[in-house]
Amino acid sequence: MAKHGNVYFLQLSRLIFNDEPYKSLSVNAKWLYVVLKELEQRYTGTNQDYFWRMNRDLAEDTGFSERTLDRAKAELLKTDLVKSWQAHFILDKGTSKERLSTKHITCYRVLRKEL
After folding, report:
1. Is 78 contained in some domain?
2. What is the pLDDT of residues 57-110, one digit of tens each?
3. Domain extent for 88
4. pLDDT (average), residues 13-33
């Protein structure tokens, strides 16, 4: 089940089209925002307000190269629409050999913007 209970529609704020500083975002940054909203809908629930994606997977989700993704992400993260941070998987959790993975993931929180 989708986070907001609707599997057919995605709700976006019109702010990204009409208001500064969002209307000056590139088309790629706006598309990345739309994809992140879709992924938020798909991968978060009532008890979790963030999700994670590896850059390779997010590039595939958006149809961007990783270089284009990096540029769009840098532009989008300068706004207050999305927060992002790096994380690692915990390997051997709960054992004496618990450690962080060498592969890092990026966590995203899409912030709710009201009209």
Report:
1. yes
2. 999 999 999 999 999 999 999 999 999 999 887 777 778 887 877 777 899 999
3. 15-110
4. 90
pTM, to two decimals: 0.83
- Return the closest-CA partner of residue 101 out of 114, 115, 90, 112: 90
Residue 45 maps to which CATH number? 1.10.10
Alpha-carbon gap, residue 46 to 15, rounded angstroms = 24
Query: Structural domain tally of the chain?
Result: 1
Type of residue numbered 38? E
What residues have CB less than 8 Å from 57, skipping those under 6 apart?
Answer: none
Show contacts of 45-49: CB within 8 Å, 24+ apart: 45/3, 46/3, 49/109
Tokens (6 digits) for 27 = 């088309």
Question: What integer pLDDT is reported at residue 67 of this predicted model?
Answer: 97
- Structural domain contains residue 72: yes
Residue 8 lies in a domain: no
Cα-only R_g, the chain: 16
